[in-house]
Specification:
Number of strands of chain B: 2
Shape of chain A: elongated
Number of strands of chain A: 12
Strand order of the largest sheet of chain B: 1-2
Strand content of chain A: 15-25%
Radius of gyration of chain B: 10 Å
Largest sheet of chain A: 5 strands, antiparallel
Helix content of chain A: 40-55%
Distance between the termini of chain A: 57 Å
Radius of gyration of chain A: 42 Å
Distance between the termini of chain B: 18 Å
Strand content of chain B: 15-25%
Structural class of chain B: alpha+beta
Shape of chain B: flat
Oligomer: heterodimer
Helix content of chain B: 40-55%
Number of helices of chain B: 2
């Protein structure tokens, strides 16, 4: 669209004095409807004061270019890339405005921006869903452990309570003996030698009636037991809390894999101890950069898998879970091996697939290993490998880089 | 004859607390840390 506008006597843009056919067609006005109107009346995206500013620069001799949105007679918007300059038309100075239609380009751009926003939102939702999935699988794991963990807490709690009760009773006896001695001490200055001997004999009798020597020794043992019990409860609660915390889920920090293994075993202890022994061979390994709670989750998951593989084999003797840690070319390596039921050949390629499970409905989500894979491979740049022989056992190997790797979406 | 109680548990501190709780109750108390040990006491 081309417009020629005059300049008023006081040096401002005047009415349109000529337009081309394209402008008439695009704006939907007849030529004579446009003549004598001002260009600013046709533009809707530039406020009056901005328009005056542009006009000022223009009349100072500058070339002006900007994006203008014209409003057609039909109300339709026409986006343009517009340039304007002063043009000498004989002795007459006019403003020449050339507006190139970019409406199509604009609309495409707008659609693209919208699509992009949508995709960003979808991605955010997906990432959120992934977090939720990992978290709920973790909670399912804790659910599986809950009964066992309750037992692990309840046992020490039981003997602590019982010992406390006995301690209270003992304390009553101690107090009785002590006050007998105090009474005696007050009387001593006024007593004859025979009386003293008699009183001491009675005190001794009281001591042996209350079994004082045994009580003193046993009270020490009780305090030791109470202390051990409290330690056990506190360990398991700490382990559980470390495992369940949802904050800091994506923060890489220094992580001690051996300690993580110890924690996982603490939580899984009750699930394992009645049908399998655990052989630990933890090597000297460096701290690694990892998301602690995520790796804890992977270790616990694989240990629990080993435990149920042994349970499923229904052996007469206890099974064996062998755990080793070690280093290999900038990776820490951890093997968790069981002599349980093993994985059938036809299934071995599917075990990391989401929702794949051989357990009956209601037991196991089929998400454990796919999430372990996601955590180890995608989030940590490590590897998780499996070897298995049906009826012989399974071995999982987890390799985690010592230094942090950038997140890759790629399995290898 | 004195009535007796046999406690069986795999946790020593639990057995110890039971022994204390029943001390002076008039029962004869036996403790076993495993099924095998319990059977050998009963034999």
């Amino acid at each position: 669209m081309i417009f020629v506008s005059g300049i008023t006597e006081d040096g401002k843009p005047g009415p349109i004095i000529e337009v081309n056919d394209t402008a008439c067609r695009m704006l939907g006005y007849k030529r004579k409807e446009l003549l004598s109107r001002r260009l600013s009346e046709l533009v809707e995206n530039i406020a009056a004061d901005n328009m005056a500013n542009l006009a000022g620069r223009l009349l100072n001799g500058e070339d002006v270019s900007c994006e203008m949105v014209f409003s057609a007679k039909s109300g339709e918007r026409i986006y343009t890339d517009t340039r304007a300059r002063i043009f000498e038309y004989g002795s007459l100075k006019v403003i020449l405005t050339v507006a190139r239609d970019i409406t199509k380009q604009k609309l495409t751009e707008k659609k693209l921006t919208e699509k992009n926003d949508q995709l960003t939102k979808t991605l955010r939702k997906l990432e959120h869903a992934r977090e939720q999935l990992i978290y709920s699988e973790k909670m399912a794991c804790i659910g599986q452990l809950a009964a066992g963990v309750a037992h692990e807490i309840n046992n020490p709690l039981g003997f602590i309570c019982s010992n406390m009760e006995i301690t209270r009773k003992n304390f009553g006896d101690f107090r009785e003996i002590l006050s007998a001695y105090r009474d005696f001490a007050l009387l001593v200055p006024d007593l004859s030698a025979e009386d003293i001997i008699e009183k001491i004999r009675r005190l001794k009798a009281l001591e042996s009636e209350k079994d004082l020597d045994f009580m003193l020794k046993d009270q020490g043992d009780m305090f030791d037991d109470i202390e051990d019990g409290l330690e056990r409860i506190s360990e398991i609660v700490t382990g559980l809390r470390a495992f369940a915390r949802q904050g800091l889920e994506n923060v890489f920090e220094e992580y001690d894999l051996n300690k993580g293994m110890h924690n996982a075993l603490l939580l899984a202890r009750n699930d394992i101890k009645y049908h399998a022994d655990v052989k630990l061979d933890l090597g000297e390994i460096p701290l690694i950069q990892a998301i602690s709670s995520r790796i804890d989750q992977v270790l616990l998951n694989i240990i629990l898998n080993a435990s149920s593989a042994i349970k499923e084999k229904k052996m007469e003797k206890p099974g064996l879970i062998t755990i080793t840690t070690d280093t290999e070319n900038g990776f820490v390596k951890c093997r968790i091996e069981d002599n349980g039921i093993g994985i059938e050949k036809k299934n071995i390629g599917k075990i990391f697939d989401p929702f794949f499970t051989t357990k009956p409905p209601g037991q196991g989500t089929g998400l454990g290993l796919s999430i372990a894979y996601d955590i180890v491979v995608n989030q940590h740049g490590g590897q998780i490998l499996v070897e298995s022989m049906p009826m012989m056992g399974t071995c999982f190997t987890i390799l985690l880089p010592v230094d942090r790797q950038p997140e890759t979406g790629d399995p290898k | 004859m004195k009535k007796s109680i046999l406690f069986v548990d795999d946790e020593r501190p639990i057995l110890a607390s039971l022994r204390r709780a029943f001390a002076g109750s008039g029962f004869e108390i036996s403790l076993a840390e495993s099924g095998e040990e319990a059977l050998s006491i009963l034999a």
